[in-house]
Amino acid sequence: MNSPHQVMLLSEMKPGQFADSFVLLVSKERSITRDGKPYFRAHFRDNSITATAMIWSDTTWFEDCESNWTEGEFYKVRARYDESKYGPQLDIDRIRLANADDEADGFDPGFYFKRSRFSSEEMFQELTEITNTEISDVPLRNLVLDILSAYEEQIKTIAAASKNHHAFTGGFLEHVLSVTKTACYLADKYLAYYQKMQPPLNKSLVVAGAILHDIGKLRELEYKPHGSQYTPAGRLVGHILLGRDLVREHAVKIEGLNPEMLLRLEHLIVAHQNLPEWGSPIAPHTPEALLVHYADDVDAKFHMMATTLENVLPGSQEEFSSRDNALRRSIFVGLKSNE
C-alpha cells in the first residue's frame, strides 16, 4: 500500500468514498448463510465509529480473515465506505497489519482505544468522597474503603462489560459512580417520603451496595484496551457470585461489622439484576436492593440508548435507528421532512 491514497478516519469518510484508513479489528464473527455457506462479519473501528465488513466465502479475503485476521490488532485498509440501515459498512480492497512505518501517516495506537470521557482519577476521588460522607455506618464504610483501596488501579481501568454498556477503558468506574449518585438521590427521596417504614430505609446500605454491586466484574473480566474478555471464572461462575465472594473475603477483616448488615449487602449484590434470565438467582427482597437494582438498570439502558443516538449519522434521513445496538430495538430519531 505505497500508492498515494488519502489516509482518512472512518468518521471522516462519506458514503461511496474510497480511501486508506487505520483501523482496529474489534471482532470477527463466523456465521452460516441460509444456503449453508460460511461467512465472517468483521467489525473495524477508529476512535469514534465502528464499521462492518462482510467477508463472504467466495470472496478474496475469506481465507485470510479466517486464518490471519486477529481481534485486537491494527490494520491499514484500503476500502470503500458506505452506510446502510445496518450501519457503516466497508468493502475492503486491500488490507495489511499496521506497523511502525505507518506513524509517518499519523498512525497512533493509543488514539483508537475507547475510554471514558471523564478522568478516572477524578471519578475515583469522587467515589471515595461519597463513601466517606454518605455511609454513616462506620464498619460498612470501612469495608467499602478497604475494597476500593485494594483494587484501586483495576477499578480505574476496567470496562463495565465486554459489550452492551460502558464497554471501554474506565467504563466500570463511570458506571459505578453514576449508579451510586442516582442511588444516593433515590435513598434521600424515599427516606423523606416513607418515614414510618420499620426498619427505615438504610441509606448507608444503599450507597455501599451501589458502589459494590458490580465488584465481581474485577474477577469476571480480563481487561484489554481493545475490549475486555471473560475469564474462566467469569464464564463459569459470573460476576454476581464472584462479587459476593470478594466482599466476604474483605468482610472478615472489618471489626464490628454487623452480621445482618453483611447479609443484607450480600443480598443486594446477588439480587441487583432482578431476574434469573438477567443473572440474579433471586429478586430484590429489601427496599435497599430494589433501589440499587433500578439505579443500575436505568444507567445501563440509558447508556445503550444514548450511544445509539450519538451514532446517528449527520444528515441521516432515517426516522429510526438500526436495530443493531445493545437494546436490539430501533430507537426513534424523529420525523423527517418529505421535501
TrEMBL record:
InterPro entries: HD/PDEase_dom, HD_domain, HDIG_dom, YhaM_exoribonuc/phosphodiest. The keyword Transmembrane helix does not apply. GO terms for molecular function: hydrolase activity. Coiled coil: none annotated. CDD domains: HDc. Residues 172-301 form the HD domain. It is an enzyme of class 3 (hydrolase). Keywords: Hydrolase. It holds the Pfam family HD. One of its GO terms (biological process) is rRNA 3'-end processing. Its EC number is 3.1.-.-. This is 3'-5' exoribonuclease YhaM. The gene is yhaM_1.
